[in-house]
Task: structure prediction
Amino acid sequence: MEITSLSYLIFVGVSLVVYWALPHKFKWWVLLVDSLIFYALNTKPITLIYPAVSVLSVWGATLFFEGRRNTKPARIVLILTLVLNVGMLSLLKYTNLFLSTVSYFTEKFSGRTIPSVKWYASLAISFYTLQIISYLLDCYWGVEKAEKNPLKVLLFTIYFPLTISGPICRYNMLSAGLFANNSFDYDRVTRSLKRTGWGFAKKLIVADRLSVVVGYMFASPDFFTGPWTILAAALFVIQLYFDFTGCMDIALGISGCFGVELPENFRTPFFAKTVQEFWQRWHMTLGTFLKEYIMYPVLKSPLFVKMTADCKKHFGKKGKKIPTYLAMLIVWLLMGLWHGSSWKYVLGEGLWFWLIIVLGQIPSDFFKKAKARLHIKEDAFLWKAYGIVRTSFFFTIGMIFFNAADLKAAFHMISCIFRPFPVKEGFLSLYRGIWPEFGGKYVALAVLIIFILQTVFDFMHEKGKDPQEAVAKIVAPVRWVLYLALIFLIIFTGSFGKSSFIYFGF
Amino acid sequence: MKKFLIKAVALIVVVLTVVCGVNYIIDPANMFHDGVIYDAADMLANGQAIESPGDFDEGKFIEARVAKMTGAPTTLVEGSSHIMFIPYEYDDCFVAGLSSSYLGDFYAVTGVFEAYDLMPERVVFGIDPWMFESGYDGGSHGSIKDYAVAKYEIMNGKRSDYSGVSSLDGITFDKVKEITSFSYFQLSIDAIKMKGLGYFTGDGRRKAVPASDPEAGGFACILPNGRRTFGSLSAGTPESVKAEAETNINSGYIAHLGGSFTGTNEDNFTYFKELCEDLQSKGIEVVFYLPSFYPDVYDYFGENPAYAGVSSFEEEIREYAASQNIEVRGSYNPHEAGAEGADFYDWIHLNSASASENFAYIR
Result:
C-alpha cells in the first residue's frame, strides 16, 4: 500500500472514524489492528514473526528485570535479549554485505564467488529494533516500568505511522498517546491534517518530481561533469530533504489525528553552521538514540574510563578527548551501517562526517585565536552564511555516496567534479531527455512554489514562529481558497504512484 | 466532532466531484467511452482499415478483435511496437502488438486466443531486452492482465479454463480505480490542454474513422490483420533521427532500457521459456524475432558497461532457441541484421520496409 495512494488515505480515514467512534478502552485495539493490517499489506505477512519474536523476547526480559536490577541474572538476560534482537537485524540486513565482502576476496584469491542469500524483508526493522532496544535498556536501567501486556509492547513496536520512516520513539513518548484517554480535539485533528497535506505536497510535488532529474543526472556522471555533478548532488539533497521531512509531516500528522503526538525529527537543518550541529537537527531521533544508548554507555564503560585516564596521563588535558573521538567513531560507523548494507553508507554516511567533525574539533583552539585575530564575530551575518554554505557543502558530498550505486560509482562521481563540463549540451540533454517526464513548465512552477514556501516556513521555524498560526490568522474564505488551491496543486502536479519514501523499508 | 465531519465530508465531496467528473468526461484513454474500441473492431472485422484512434485500451481492443474472429489465424505475432509495423510474409497472420509490451503481455495475449479457442499454428514472439524485467502478471496492459494470470495458473494446474475472465464487460475494479485516479486526472488535463474543451461537447473525442490511404497517409493506421502503419506526418528525416539518437546517447540514459541493462531477470526468462515450451508441447511452432537497435545506439552499448547485457542477452536467447529448435530472426545488432540509420522511422523503430527485410531474411 503506497503511502501516497488513495487507498492509504481511505485506510486512514476509515480508521479515524472507527477510532473516534469507539470508547476509550477499545481505541488502542483499533491502532493495533490497523498496524497489523498495514504491516501485512506492505510485506509478506509471515515476516510479522520478526517483530513478534522481538516483542516477546523484550517483553519477557523487561518483566524479568522487575526487582532484579543490577543483578547478574538480569545482566545475562539483557545481553541475551540484545544479542537476539541485534542478531536478527544483522542477519536480515547485513548478511549480504558480509557475504559480498568475503566473496570479493575469495574471487581475488581463488576465483570463486559466494552467492547472496534472499530473506523475506521485514518492514521497518531498522526503526523498530532501535525502539525496542531503547525500551529494553530503559527498563533495565529502571528509567521505564515494564509493561505487563505484550500486545501493548507490540503496538509500540509496529505502530503504523512510524513504520513509514520513523521517527524513532522511546516507550514513554508513545505510550502517553497510545494508551491515554484521548478525546477528540478539533484543533489538534485539523492541525494534524494540514500538516499531513503539506507533507504530501512536499513529497509528491518536489521530492518525486526531482527524483526524475536526479536519477537522470546520476545515471550519466561522465556527461554531467564539473558544476553539473555538484548540481546533481544538490538536487538530491533537496529531494531527500523534501522526501524525508514530507514523510515526517505525514507520519506526525496522521498520528496526531489519532491524538498520538510523535517527536520531531527535523529542526531546520540547513541553518546549521557546523556538521555537528547539522546532525543535531537532521534525523534527530536517530542521533538521540545513538548518543544515549551507544555513545554514553560506551564512554561510561570501564574500558573507556580507563582509556580516558591513561590518555590524560600521557597526552595531557587534550589527550582525554581521544576516547571521545573513538566513541564517536563507533557511533558514526553504526550510523553508516544503519542506513544500509553497503560500504557506501559506512563511508559516506559514517566515516566522512566523523572525519569532518573531528578535523573541525582538533584545531578548535587555533581557529578561535585566528578568528579573534581577524576580528570575526560569531554572530556576523557573513560568518554565519559561510558556516551554513560550508556545512551544506560537506553534507552534499556525503549524499553523493548515499545516492550513488556503490562506493566505486560514488568516487567516480566525485572525480567527475574536476572534469570539464558541457554547458549547452547539458541543458539540451536535460530538456530533451527528461523535461516531458519531469512534467514541463507547470510542474516546474509548482516545484518552485512549494520550495519557496518551505524555505519561508523554515525561516519562520528558525525564528521561533509557527507557520500554521500565521496561516490561521488569514480570513476564513481566503484561507479555504488557499487550502483548496494546495489540494488541487497536488492533484494537478503531484507525481502519483511512482515511488516510496527513500527511508521506507529501512 | 460533528463540525469536523461536515467539513471533511464537504471537502472530500468537492475534490472527488471535480476529479471523477473530469476523469469521466475527458477520459483520454477511452476507458469509460469504449464505444470507439467496439466500432474499430467492427470496421476491422469487416476488412476496413482505420485511422488509429489515439489513446485507447490496447489490451481490451485485442480481446474485442479476437471476439469478432470467425477462425484462428495461421500465425499470431506478439510483442511491442517493434513488431506492429512489419508487413509479414505469412499468408494468414494476425499482429497482436501492444505498446511497451512486457512478458506478462505474452501470457495475456496467448491467454486471450486460448480462451476464444483460436490458437494459431505458429506464434512469433518479438523479444525486446527489457521484456523480462517485470513479473509474469506485470504486463503493461492491465485490462487483460487476468488472462496472463489465468494462463499461468492453467499451465501450472491451478485452474482448468478461462471462465470468468474478460476485459469486455461490466464495471471492473480497474475502472473504479481509474475514475478516482489523480494521475488519470493529470492526463485528462493534458488532453484538455492539447485539444481544447471539445471533450465536454463530445467533439474532441477521437472516433473510429476509415483510412483512405493506410500505407502512405498522414496518420498512423490499423489494418484488418492488426498491423499498424506509421503516419507520414510524424516521420523523422534521417538527420533528425540521428540527432535524436545522439541526444539520448549523450545523456547516457537509454530510456526504453530503463537507464541500464546488464542482464535479464532469470526468473522471468524462465517464465517465458515455460510459455514457449507449453506452446511447443501443443504442436504450435514458435519463432523469435529480435528487432534491431539504431546503429549508433547499439554501438554505444559496446562502450557503456551499463548496457553490456544487450549482446549477452541475445546470445542467451539464441542458445535457448537452438536447444528448443526455435527459429530466430533479426538481431539486436543492426550491423549483423543489415540495418542502417536511414532504415529507421525514429530512433527506436525500424521503418516498415526495413523491418520487413530485417525479419524475413536475416537468420
